[in-house]
Amino acid sequence: MSTMNISLPEQMKAWVESRTEHGRFANSSDYMRDLIRRDQARQLAVATLQAAIDDGMSSGPAEVFDPEAFLRARRR
């Protein structure tokens, strides 16, 4: 595993330390890894959503939606 040193203002350092004192994280490295994993998951979710939006935009003009026809078809 690689090592990375980061500089934080005192207020942020205190926050990280407080997150590790309550037992969820063993140390500040565990906390930072969790933040990075969450950020990666968020970025993937945003990319997935953007791809769906792009697909929708490139699929052509929207069609009129008939909710009654939809419900009838759903009941069948």
From TrEMBL:
Give the matching Pfam families.
ParD_antitoxin
Output the Gene3D superfamilies linked to this UniProt entry. Answer: Antitoxin ParD1-like (6.10.10.120)
InterPro entries annotated for this entry? ParD, ParD_sf, Ribbon_hlx_hlx
What are the entry keywords? Answer: Plasmid, Toxin-antitoxin system
Q: Does the keyword Ligase apply?
A: no
- Domain of life from the UniProt record: Bacteria
**One of the GO biological process terms:** regulation of DNA-templated transcription
Q: Which family does the record assign?
A: Belongs to the ParD antitoxin family.
Show the NCBIfam families listed in the entry.
antidote_CC2985
What PANTHER family does this protein's entry cite? ANTITOXIN PARD (PTHR36582)
Name of the protein = Antitoxin protein ParD-4
- Protein species of origin: Frigidibacter mobilis
